[in-house]
Amino acid sequence: MNIQKILVPISPEQTVTERFHQIFQFANKKKVSVTLLSVIEQITPNCVAQYTQQASWEILDQIKNEQQKKLESDVNALSAQYKDCAFNYELVSGIPFVEIIKKASEGKFNLIAIDAGRGYKSRAAQFGSTTRHLMRKSPTPLWTVVSDYQAKINRVLAAVDVAAPTDDGLELNKKIISCAAAFAAANKAELYVFHAWRLFGEGYFRSWGRLSELEIAEYALKERDARNEKLTELTRPVEEAKITLHQVLSEGEPEEILPAFINQNGVDLLVMGTVCRTGIAGFLIGNKAENLLDAVRCSVITLKPEHFDSPVLG
Q1: How many CB atoms are located within 10 Å of the residue 48 CB?
Q2: Where are the transmembrane segments (predicted)?
């Protein structure tokens, strides 16, 4: 994955905390450009009429001026700290997730990186509405950094489905591996390539197929070996990149066993595909993907298939 430009949304009430520095450290290592983006939500006359006589456009201008000063200060401080990174900022008004998606597309950014950790949430990985909208609707890869982050990324996990039957599914696998490998290489981190699998029709074999447990076990072993071969083939380019690689083939439903593996093995970054309603079999869809993401305690990069059509971009 070739990353040259990163878009970092910062809401007006946010400050550049230490969580953001995981993003900036990666950007500095890759010597890429970073744009800080603030989106000021529109203020309607009805919203302010009961509180002040001041016109809504005057209040909006004041907010924009204050935010511009803050962004200029942030860019100056970050430029001094991360000298191999080119920083700039943009300030727009509108609906946050809509403007972020549009700006990422118009500016041809390779990655959106957002701080998803907020103090009012009971768990670090409970994503806010803007983050969830971006996960569902952004064609640009999204990196969400949460409050249980490690400043140094030591373990990266790529979640793939080697049984994906469509061309889009196969390409999404390659995209996930490429992205995960890029982050592992930049951080000198270990890379886990994880595939969750189940024997198709196992319940039918038991209930109606009149097969013995031994026969079912033999079928499962053959299926596991076939999946393992595909996983090995998928990870072959990574072996040539001299990254410490671990292949993990685990039996069960991904939304159940993947969070457990991540939390038990101290994974710092999960890279996975979220396909919403595109119909790519094998990849997590909609609520299942979001439930999984709520269950992990690490930063996450979510990717879409190459031909994903965002409802925001029409």
Answers
A1: 16
A2: none
Tokens 């806010």, located at residue:
128
Residue 206, SS3 per DSSP = helix
d(CA 112, CA 21): 14
Can you give the pLDDT at residue 208? 61
- Cα distance between residue 262 and residue 192, in whole Å: 10
Beta bridge partners of 248: 194
Q: CA 217 to CA 178: how far, in whole Å?
A: 34
pLDDT at 287: 59
* In contact, 144 and 131? CB cutoff 8 Å: yes
Q: Which tokens belong to 256?
A: 């159940």
Tell me, yes or no, whether 158 and 295 share the same domain: yes
pLDDT of 122 reads 42
SS3 label, residue 89 = strand
Q: What 3 state SS string does 251-268 have?
A: ECCHHHHHHHHHHHCCCC
The residues near 271 (Cβ < 8 Å, ≥ 6 apart) are 156, 157, 158, 159, 176, 179, 180, 183, 300, 301, 303
Residues 99 and 161 in one domain: no
169 and 304 share one domain: yes
10: alpha, beta or left? (left if phi > 0; alpha if psi -120 to 50): beta
Q: DSSP character for 42?
A: P
Mean pLDDT, each 10-residue run in order, the chain (314 residues): 92 82 90 95 61 65 89 95 95 93 96 74 55 89 76 89 78 92 92 86 60 74 90 85 89 86 92 63 54 80 87 85
Sheet with 33-40, strands from edge to edge, namely 86-93, 33-40, 5-9, 111-115, 142-145, 299-303, 269-273, 155-159, 190-197, 245-251
Q: How many Å apart are CA 55 and CA 1, to the nearest integer?
A: 47
Answer with the one of 97, 119, 147 that is the final residue of a domain: 147
